[in-house]
């Protein structure tokens, strides 16, 4: 199987196991992490920090109604980013796969997930009188994982 798929699964398990991280006060976040975040996201609002295992997760908005999450290690290295994007921002290859393999479904929600291994797209699909799907795609439109929601 594809290395990108295994990397995605490993990161998903890692972060799913820590999904209920502890709220962390701003003072508990290492200054190098806070400085890296604030210098790269000066327009951020509604900033919330959580400690998840060995990582620091920050959730924030930028005033565009989109939600963002970034996971940092204690040295301020980004290990994962999630950005809520519009369906119109999906790569054409993913839209083509959805139209071919999920006929009758519409796109409900999209997150672009970036890790050191690459970028994937988590798409929630819904249809009337059918089970919803949560599907992870590679940028070239391949289905990496899918789960009935």
TrEMBL record:
<dbReference type="InterPro" id="IPR021533">
    <property type="entry name" value="PepSY-like"/>
</dbReference>
<feature type="signal peptide">
    <location>
        <begin position="1"/>
        <end position="21"/>
    </location>
</feature>
<dbReference type="Pfam" id="PF11396">
    <property type="entry name" value="PepSY_like"/>
</dbReference>
<feature type="domain" description="Putative beta-lactamase-inhibitor-like PepSY-like">
    <location>
        <begin position="55"/>
        <end position="144"/>
    </location>
</feature>
<keyword id="KW-0732">Signal</keyword>
<protein>
    <recommendedName>
        <fullName>Putative beta-lactamase-inhibitor-like PepSY-like domain-containing protein</fullName>
    </recommendedName>
</protein>
């Amino acid at each position: 199987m594809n290395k990108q798929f295994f990397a995605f699964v490993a990161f998903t398990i890692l972060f799913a196991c820590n999904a209920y991280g502890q709220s962390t006060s701003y003072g508990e976040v290492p200054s190098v992490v806070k400085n890296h975040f604030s210098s790269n996201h000066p327009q951020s609002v509604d900033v919330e920090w959580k400690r998840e295992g060995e990582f620091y997760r920050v959730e924030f908005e930028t005033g565009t109604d989109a939600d963002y999450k970034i996971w940092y290690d204690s040295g301020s290295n980004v290990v994962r980013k999630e950005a809520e994007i519009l369906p119109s921002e999906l790569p054409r290859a993913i839209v083509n796969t959805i139209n071919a393999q999920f006929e009758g479904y519409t796109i409900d929600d999209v997150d672009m997930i970036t890790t050191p291994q690459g970028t994937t797209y988590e798409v929630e699909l819904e249809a009337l009188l059918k089970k919803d799907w949560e599907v992870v795609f590679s940028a070239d439109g391949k289905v990496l994982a899918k789960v009935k929601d």
